[in-house]
Design goal:
heterotetramer; A: alpha/beta; 5-stranded parallel β-sheet; 17 helices; C: alpha/beta; 6-stranded mixed β-sheet; 4-stranded parallel β-sheet; 14 strands; disordered N terminus
Chain lengths: 457, 457, 546, 546
Amino acid sequence: MLLRHTPEKITERSALTINPAKTCQPIGAMYAALGIHGCLPHSHGSQGCCAYHRSTLTRHYKEPISAATSSFTEGASVFGGQANMMQAINNIFTVYNPDIIAAHTTCLSETIGDDLKQIKKKAEKEGKIPEGKEFISASTPSYVGSHVTGFSNMVKSMAEMAEPTGHKNGMVNIIPGWVEPSDMEELKRITNLVGVKHILFPDTSGVLNGPLSGEYKMFPEGGTTIKELKSTGDSIGTLALGEWCSADAARYLDTKCKVPCSILDMPFGLMATDRFIDALRTVAGTVVPEELAFERGQLVDMISDMHQYLYNKKVALVGDPDQLIAMTEFLVSIDMLPIHIVTGTPGKKFEKRIKEITKDLPYEVNVKAKGDMFLLHQWIKNEPVDLLIGNTYCKYIARDEDLPYVRWGFPILDRQGHQYFPTVGYKGGLRLLEKILGVLLDRKDRDDPEEQFELVL
Amino acid sequence: MLLRHTPEKITERSALTINPAKTCQPIGAMYAALGIHGCLPHSHGSQGCCAYHRSTLTRHYKEPISAATSSFTEGASVFGGQANMMQAINNIFTVYNPDIIAAHTTCLSETIGDDLKQIKKKAEKEGKIPEGKEFISASTPSYVGSHVTGFSNMVKSMAEMAEPTGHKNGMVNIIPGWVEPSDMEELKRITNLVGVKHILFPDTSGVLNGPLSGEYKMFPEGGTTIKELKSTGDSIGTLALGEWCSADAARYLDTKCKVPCSILDMPFGLMATDRFIDALRTVAGTVVPEELAFERGQLVDMISDMHQYLYNKKVALVGDPDQLIAMTEFLVSIDMLPIHIVTGTPGKKFEKRIKEITKDLPYEVNVKAKGDMFLLHQWIKNEPVDLLIGNTYCKYIARDEDLPYVRWGFPILDRQGHQYFPTVGYKGGLRLLEKILGVLLDRKDRDDPEEQFELVL
Amino acid sequence: MATATKKKLVQWDPTDVKEELLKKYPPKVARKRAKQILINEALENETPEIQANVRTIPGIITMRGCTYAGCKGVIMGPTRDIVNLVHGPIGCSFYAWLTRRNQTNAGPDGENYMTYCFSTDMQDSDIIFGGEKKLEKAIQEAYDLFHPKSIAVFATCPVGLIGDDIHTVTRNMKEKLGDCNVYAFSCEGYKGVSQSAGHHIANNQVFRHIVGENDEVKPGKFKINLLGEYNIGGDGFEIDRILKKCGITNIATFSGNSTYDQFASAHTADLNAVMCHRSINYVADMLETKYGIPWIKVNFIGANSTAKSLRKIAEYFGDKKLIATVEKVIAEEMPEVEEVSKDVRARTTGKTVMMFVGASRAHHYQGLFNEMGMQTISAGYEFAHRDDYEGRQVIPNLKVDADSRNIEEIEVEADETRYKPRKSAKQIAALEEAGFKFKDYEGIIPDMDNDTLVIDDLNQYEAEKLVELMKPDLFCAGIKEKFSIQKLGVPMKQLHSYDSGGPYAGFKGAINFYKEIDRLVNSRVWSYMKAPWQKNPQLSASYNWE
Amino acid sequence: MATATKKKLVQWDPTDVKEELLKKYPPKVARKRAKQILINEALENETPEIQANVRTIPGIITMRGCTYAGCKGVIMGPTRDIVNLVHGPIGCSFYAWLTRRNQTNAGPDGENYMTYCFSTDMQDSDIIFGGEKKLEKAIQEAYDLFHPKSIAVFATCPVGLIGDDIHTVTRNMKEKLGDCNVYAFSCEGYKGVSQSAGHHIANNQVFRHIVGENDEVKPGKFKINLLGEYNIGGDGFEIDRILKKCGITNIATFSGNSTYDQFASAHTADLNAVMCHRSINYVADMLETKYGIPWIKVNFIGANSTAKSLRKIAEYFGDKKLIATVEKVIAEEMPEVEEVSKDVRARTTGKTVMMFVGASRAHHYQGLFNEMGMQTISAGYEFAHRDDYEGRQVIPNLKVDADSRNIEEIEVEADETRYKPRKSAKQIAALEEAGFKFKDYEGIIPDMDNDTLVIDDLNQYEAEKLVELMKPDLFCAGIKEKFSIQKLGVPMKQLHSYDSGGPYAGFKGAINFYKEIDRLVNSRVWSYMKAPWQKNPQLSASYNWE
């Protein structure tokens, strides 16, 4: 057994986290920053943080991840990292020449109280930030929240770039939340189909799913432009996908720029996608084209065709709040039974929402925020499931417990596809169904006694 | 063992086919006919043929397949099926009111010598074919060729609908061959991206991957229209994808309507797609957009990222000639080793072409046209492989030999996705790679000893 | 779970519905179909008449298959240790390859050819010059590879037309091979009007070439044959489980999970229990005439019918201990059945169903649905004869038409050596006296409510209309019908192949079925037909921000 | 297989290249980097000097990690039966979870915590009010769940800043638990200038808290410790296989596939064989000073180096039989190695490679590449010190800067009871007389050709420039560098984690490596960079129909 020391008996733990279902804020800030065109993320702390975040994102995307660091020394940790930051700004603009630096703090710089906003002022005063270049920053202490919080904080910093002109631009801001480049691409496709002019931020499509062509571009074509970000304050409204990932930025634009917002679930699965598209056409006063109704019908069709294999199958899920909420709703909607649900990210709201969604299930549902995968594994040992959905670390549980397993979430370090094929929207729903059915039916084909082995499924 | 009587020792068989890698012509004609908008396919034979073809297509697509039959009785088999056909034409137009009937023969009606072209004349003379309605037919004797031949024959009958006006229409005819609705959709997307106005026929997209919406349409929106088919004779040229599926129709338009044609491989994999797109831009004098170069680069990127898992893996393949030729080239191009290749369709050309493609492999390659899956299984027993690619019937071999197995081809009766996600083009290549890698890496995760179990792949 | 809310016509008059169904047809078609669509009514000691087993109308999209399908696919398909070699072009063999879900259990190393597909793959040269040589060679190659105890050859359409003499070829090969029983079926697809002819051809040859080949007497006190059970989804396994539990020995099932030897020994049983009347009642008759084995109609679909059938078998043997065991088994099995049916009834009671399958299931399954509180509002068969609708009493005056005429009827007489009446005329009389019914089948019509629609050979067009008009909660037919019905938002259950489910026979089968139907009619998916913007297309005047 | 055809600069002058690398930098940065970029030259009995182990420049995208990574990730990570508990916010523990591919074999039911990730997951309240209590509780919870023989605590950045006294906490918990050795590492990420400081901190504590804990004498005639081998991709397994075959007993590996008990018994070995000079040479010194165990430098990367190292060990023990066995083993292993290298050389000879990793592999792997006929045209270390470049002779005059000053140096002296020189001064002298070298390492520079570029702490910008200018056939570094290099169409091999491959050490490892490099540099994919319409954009005047 790979996780041979995990006991079935569940004991209370108040200080020890084992096999976390989250990581720290800065990596979220770094991922979000990569969704700005021409942006170099910067980690204000010791260089290890930056190295770890780049490595993890690289393993997830099999793509180069460029980011700089303040490379704190012991001295800097005592006297403050301002000097390092000033030096970094100068070196970065000189050597890499990005349009914008998006800096985030770390537990180190937060603990010693470095203030990036103040450092930025100083840099501007000293002309360290060249004409037409930008510098934004987010406070992302690793000891608060999770990677999701860091993502949200950096996205909020993007919103803070808004420069309202007083003239509406006819755009709808769409904040996708922490989804894959392929998902952001798909959200744009859907929004265009509904005929809604929009600014999507952040947007990592074209950045983290790039081609191999013999050239290396540190700053690829993709990403939300600075111009777009500045104009979000003139938009007619904001659709924020995911309370945890996107709401803060949306609410900021609402309060500060009077851009009304609506907080929706991430559009995974049938209902959440229905609500997203309905919100789009409602806020923009457009008509949903037949093409989307057709895609929707295809998803409904596949649900009905394969319902017998999904019905009453028990599922264990681990991941991030916004994703899990939408996925849980999707699983319930296709008559599956999500019974163990864990996120490492804190937030009682999460447990409340999951309980609402699962209230009609003929089953006791285990749900925990600020939980860990050690607990999830113990729950599974106590109440086995037919399917496990989560990031790559789940593979250890899947192999030990011999569970059908669908990789979904962050990070996925051992399979390809997530960067190219969306799981949002109706087409994404078809992909999720294909994957879920794939592992369930593979298991059936593996385990059916020979006399019951089926040609047609 | 499911196929427990299959011996490793290979003995020559000249009369007995076991576990065929093909089926008969009429089903191909029926599938092709479904790619005409408003068309009701008609099987001129005993009703069992029609029932079997509808059942198989239904199991493959999980969609309703409407087709009529002449329901031969013993009497009709003796005195000829003309009366049945006349009755059928009348009933069909009265009850179902299609725009067009596409009839094909069977071994029965061919053996007794029914001539559908002559029957059509009679029907027209007797006014059985209403104003503005069409009737086309193909001769598809089950004892010649295979389902692929039947498909090709019906496509040729579509080409015969061409009514040249003498004025070029600026279109390029694209004959996709026997590919999935999702593939036809993708071919249209690619062609549009290259800016080439086109007529794609047949076109089953929107017909066999339809939505569930509470309504049933016997004749869905999709399909090539009669108007388009009539205008193929005015096109500037024809790109026929696949020598077996599409060449006859293209050559007909060339000889009869002076529409020049170029026969290409089906665009599965990198090179074949390169050639298809290059041909498109060449014949239409357009420029290939960056978007396609980007998709291409993504495919190349994934090949390079995952090359270590593909390199030197042995593959057994079974399917239809055009598909196998392109797939074999793709596998060779990613440094895999396709070593056993079988099609049930006759044609020495096939073996010659495969040998060309595989000539540099450091391996003896087994290839057979008019072979069967019994032989393929024996080859595998004699020289095991790392991967098996073929239709659903391969699952019996895969389970007995414990082989990683990717479903691809016709029919796929036990999994979903083929009708929604293309495998042609660069995006299709990404999907093929994802699937191949999926089964290879699942096997690795299953079999690696614990000390070598990998988190990152 | 949320049930899709379907608007039911407040009231539908069956005559209106029938009119609707016929309206669009050309007159000739309408006249013919009118006779095959019956509005059920209870008559004084007679059953309303329906037209059945007549030709399918060319161009009208039918549910029916062909004679070959009935012979090779249905009857011979489930027999595991016979090499079924199809003589013809490749298609017919390909389509009948593993597509019927009849399960078999050959054990770890028993003979099993059901996963294989054998064909002579006739080419044009064979059509022109004849295929007998190729057939002969193919039989030899099959024998050399597998050395099976038996090889069966099936003719497809062209074979009859080009005049290949398959019976001579097989007779010669049987002699040549010596230890392999080889025989052929002239089941060309154009014969007859439906699969039914194929059943007949298959059963005749099984009776002629296999039954009686093995006189060795099998152990067992109460020996029966189960006729017309095809082990779809494991039905036969469940029935065998129950029979075994009751101490009843099943000598041969025709033909679910069967072997060559079972057929060969069938004549040693003491009772024939007939499940599917249509496909095999004549075999029961022949077994009685030739060997003196009486037959009764049974039905193991539905817990109550299963209990009833077990009691009937026990009553036949008239053994106290057997009767007691049967009661004990029923008492053991029923509680779980009732528990589950009680649970699902809460969600299924009052729901309506339509069934158009085979020639027994459309009847048998009505009882199962009743156990769930569901009502059958329309039903019919795909390939039945009038006796399956109206009861066996009509058999004598069934007229033989051109299509039936050519389907061979075997004349059998008592076997000189092996004829042995299992019951004396006196015993039979006594049993009948007590209300016990031999060779009796009343058909589907008497079991259906007034004003329900009984429809023979329903076609695609009528099916769609029926669903539109009567909005059933569930529709049952075959794979070809499944998705056009479901497109209308109505769940569709295959009762040929059971989709992916089963067993549904016997007690455990009933439980499976209750749960499956509960799943189907209460699936959330049927409530997803429309998108929100389709449900209320008008836009709120102002943006609806939170 | 088709090789991508790459245009090589006909001739590149290293001074031009160096100038190119520096051109774009701000003057201050350029000055500093200039000292870390060396154009190699052969000097009369001295080695050119390079600047190393100095601070990374803020804002310059470095390959380096932090002290915590060097301590927890590199050194302690591979030890299977110690619960490694990270005290800090969740990230540091998460990122070091199973990401280094150091394999371990705990057998079916041995203790193995390497698949687990333990953290105190510090929250803001802990930062404000201190985390000692939480740490204490976490240790207790870990102990109650697993009862490990040892728990190691690692400090991340904030811990040092808020002043949690982890050493007192662990000392107390060790006493409290009684049967569990608990200790801590002050390896905050901001310490030092690279991972190197973390190696040092880890090794010091292992030496202080574990080595010498178990005096029980293990069986074995020729006992060694293997220092600085981390069993990435199973290297250690292969080395152990070879040692075992030679009859040499490996008491403790620091720290690949290691256990607590191996460390505890390390002082019972008779020779220390040092693989990675950088990460552990000081431990070798301490073991000699305290216990009298001499050390030698070995290298098991490359078949020839492996043979050389085995002979060196045998020579040290001076046992005829051992020497014979070693020769026998080499003779057995080499044929296959040579066969494969011969095969691949046909495709790899003349190809060029660049390597920028660790502080030993960039050196060790050059031999392996030479065996394939490949030339190293530029190389350097990520976190080495000058002695790793220039040789140990420079150690005495290395200046200690502000960053190194705080990395503890342990003062050790001979152990009163357990100090036992394994060789007498006379024996040592005799061996040295014969040319045997103790505690000797000449560094990477002398092994590299003239005019090759030796670059310390190479960064992303310089890497890209180097590849553009010098067009190597292969580039070796870490995961962060992999894909930016490959985007340029040049295959990139990770030499930290080996991507997915290994083992590459020893004889079998060499074979694996030959094949892997052959695959990489000859993959067809590098020829696919351009689409046909990009290769020849102009359109043929007329349509090209067949």
